[in-house]
Structures are given as C-alpha cells and as structure tokens.
Write a structure and sequence with these properties.
By secondary structure, the chain is an alpha/beta fold. It contains 11 helices and 13 strands.
C-alpha cells in the first residue's frame, strides 16, 4: 500500500514537472533560461527508481568443489546468493599447492587458473548478482600449525589470494581450515587473529569483501582450530557451520548424517557464543551407504572388504539412483527427521543401509534457520543433485518466494 502511494506521488510530481517545464520554455527565451541542478541524471527513468527490488533476506551459500565443474549446467544461479569455489590448498609458507607428489598438477588450483568453463560460469554468476568466493583450503594439521605460527606467511598468503582473486575478478573469500585433530585454545585464538588480519586486508583492497570461515559442528563445544566462536563471529562476516557428519562411514552404526535434534543442539551452542546473523547452517547434499549386519534402523556396521563392499559416501543423485535401481522402500528416522532405507546389494549380496537428506528433511532445517534468524543456509556441495530439481525447488520456496 505504501509503495503504491509513493508511486502515485512520484508520477504526479513528474507530470507537474513536465507541465511547468513546458510553461517555462514557452515563457522564457532559451537565452534567458537558467540551468536547473538536479540530483537525477539527465537520462534517468524516474519510475525505475521506485521499481520493486528483491532483497537478499537470507544467504544461500553453496560450495562448488573443483570436481563438480562437469555439473555446472545443473546449478540454478537464481536460487543462490553466494558460491565458494573449492579451492586452492594452503602450504605452510603461504603459497598454494600447485602440483601433487605424483607429478600431476593439483586440480583445485589449476582449474581455478585455466578452466574456461569455470571462468564463463563466474561471469554468468555475476549477472545473477551471485557473489563468488575463492576458498583457501587447509586440511593438513602440520601445515596449519606452521602457517599460523608464521606471521610473515599471513601477508604472503594475502597477496597470493589477492592475485588469484583478481584473475577471476572476484572479491570474496572462504576460509576452510579443517584441522583434523583437537587443538589447544591458543591455536584457536591464533586462528581468530589470522581471520581478523585477512578480513581487514581484503576490506582495504576490495572495500566490501565478504569473508566466511567454516567450523565443525562440534567447534562450539570441542577443542578445534575454529572453537573460538565468539572471536570468529566478531572478526569474520559469517561462520559456515558444517552441520553434518554426525554419522560417518567409520561409525559403529548406520545413522543420520545431519539429524535435526543434533542440529538444534549444535545451533544452541553456537548461539550462546555469537549472534544469529553471523551463522550459516551448512547442510549435506549427500548421504552415507553402510555395509550392515541387518536391515533394522541403526544397524551395526560391518567392516568392509572387496567381497562384500565398503561403507562409502553417496551424492544425492547417486542415492536417488540407488532407490530407483533397487526399489528400496524409504523410511523416516523419527528423532533425526531424516530419510533412510535398507536394501540388498545386487552386486555383492550384502545388506546395506543408506541415510541421506531429501526435500522433506532439508525443509525442516531451512525453517529452523529462519526461526532462529540465522544469516542463512549453506550447501555441501553444488552439483551433487545433478539433474534432480526438487532441492532447487525447495530453495525457491523457502528463500525466494
């Protein structure tokens, strides 16, 4: 209603201005007309100034790993606000890993600098006003320790990141420091110092760089490199909570990868240490497929071998293929609020159980994030749904309608 009134007022004002202009032109010769100073540029369409614009109320943040670049055609850019390319791998001196020990090029870095499909995709993403970030990946504990203790290396990595970001014309950054082991508090504090340093560096150079750091689901309660949640909330622009892997292929029993009850507890722990507007709830577009001893819910895992197969991860598209190929009946985990199913492998004859996420389970997580007024939600990982559109439809329904 207020918008309609404003449009009518502006329209009437514009009409009056045109009429007065005509009268002024007729009454005064051109030589005696004075230049009118206006805050609106000469060719500006005044009505466009009041055109409704869709605002980003919630962040929808998707990781794009280098191994998903063959699936770019499945990514619906109009459903996202942010994409983080994953990524360039850190070395302890602040440089990036460019080659592997096998002598082949490290694919994360080399696809960033040379993949024409990625370059075109980034250009297309910008047309949709999607922010694109480069991810700095640190997954080796020894490398992380040495790097965080080397202050000159921070400046080196900042300069190196800036050079790579400039190549693709992006200004946003993701920090994916997944320290496998537990760390003393001093290490977490040092990581906060680094995040503060790199965020300020990027803001000086790019003015408004969006710097997001990842954190394990247990970071708010455990001794992780990302456990200083208060500090990270203060110095970063967002914390991507990896809200998954509550059960893994090595777990003793099959179970939900991202159970809603555990997610609620996790968010409560994070919210006790930082504000909701700094938190991005990451959800999995994958599940785990276990070799188990029976088809009962939560069956015990059996150690795999070449004969019976192994417990393994499955992307969303692979899970749907398995359901269709085996005719498995999908059940529902009552406390985790997630789907699962059991089946007998046609190849090995072993009993297997799969826990994963679908539109119904993800909807509950998305609605939880909105009830808690989180900054938004995140996805690991883009491309994992391939030609299946139901998860994109859910994002449209929950965040864009």
């Amino acid at each position: 209603m207020k918008y309609d009134i404003a449009v009518k007022l502006v329209r009437n004002l514009a009409i009056c201005t045109i009429i007065l202009g005509m009268i002024y032109t007729i009454t005064f010769p051109r030589s005696k007309q004075y230049k009118i100073i206006s805050p609106v540029k000469p060719k500006t369409n005044i009505f466009k100034m009041f055109t409704p614009k869709i605002e980003r109320k919630n962040v929808v943040y998707g990781y794009l790993p280098w191994w998903s670049l063959n699936d770019l055609d499945y990514i619906e850019l109009d459903k996202l606000t942010d994409i983080a390319y994953f990524g360039v791998y850190l070395q302890s001196d602040g440089s990036f890993k460019k080659d592997l020990e096998t002598g082949i090029h490290e694919p994360g870095y080399n696809r960033w600098v040379s993949d024409a499909r990625l370059k075109e995709f980034i250009t297309r993403a910008k047309k949709y006003n999607v922010r694109v970030a480069l991810t700095l990946v640190a997954h080796e504990d020894e490398v992380t320790d040495k790097f965080l203790d080397c202050r000159p290396c921070w400046e080196k990595v900042a300069n190196n990141l800036r050079a790579e970001m400039d190549k693709q014309g992006v200004k946003d950054l993701n920090l994916n420091f997944e320290y496998g082991g537990y760390t003393p508090r001093e290490k977490a504090d040092k990581y906060v110092e680094f995040v503060e340093y790199i965020n300020k560096y990027m803001d000086v150079y790019y003015k408004d760089s969006f710097v997001v750091t990842s954190a394990f689901a247990d970071s708010a309660m455990g001794d992780r490199v990302s456990s200083n949640i208060e500090g990270l909330g203060r110095v970063s622009d967002g914390i991507f909570i990896m809200g998954y892997d509550f059960h893994r292929p090595q777990s003793a029993n099959a179970g939900p990868v991202a159970p809603l009850d555990d997610i609620e507890k996790t968010l409560g722990q994070f919210l006790s240490q930082t504000s909701a507007d700094k938190l991005i709830l990451g959800v999995p577009y994958y599940g785990y497929n276990w070799v188990v001893d029976s088809d009962v819910l939560g069956a015990s895992r059996i150690e795999g071998n070449d004969s019976i197969g192994y417990s393994e991860s499955q992307i969303y598209a692979g899970v749907i293929d398995t359901i269709n190929e085996t005719g498995a009946k999908v059940g529902w985990h009552s406390t985790g609020k997630t789907p699962y199913f059991s089946y007998v492998s046609p190849e090995t004859g072993s009993v297997r159980q799969v826990h994963y996420e679908n539109a119904e389970s993800l909807k509950q997580k998305y609605q939880l994030s909105k009830r808690l007024n989180l900054q938004g939600v995140g996805i690991w990982a883009l491309g994992y749904d391939r030609g299946h559109t139901e998860l994109w439809d859910l994002l449209q329904q929950e965040f864009w309608n």
